[in-house]
Amino acid sequence: MVSDGRRIMAPVLFLLLSLSLPSVSLAYRPGDIVPMSKMGQYHNSRTVWHDVVGKHCPIFTVNREVLIPIAKPTGYTGADPYKISFQVGREKF
């Protein structure tokens, strides 16, 4: 048997969770520019995080490709990998 305390807690937790979700979905509206940052790494040197200019940022609910200019690091020959990281909000990719 489940105690009465657990029966009451489940609906309360569900209510709190459902109230917090709309705030996440309302963060961006269709057509809003999604701010983004980028960082590169070549060999052992890393760049700092750079904000991406608005025309190179994705647009919320718009299905299109975004071309982001990437400067070649000093000494880049193509033989070794150049790693790129992106940050959207608090998420890093």
UniProtKB/TrEMBL annotation:
Residues 1-27 form the signal peptide. The keyword Signal applies. Keywords: Signal. This is Uncharacterized protein.
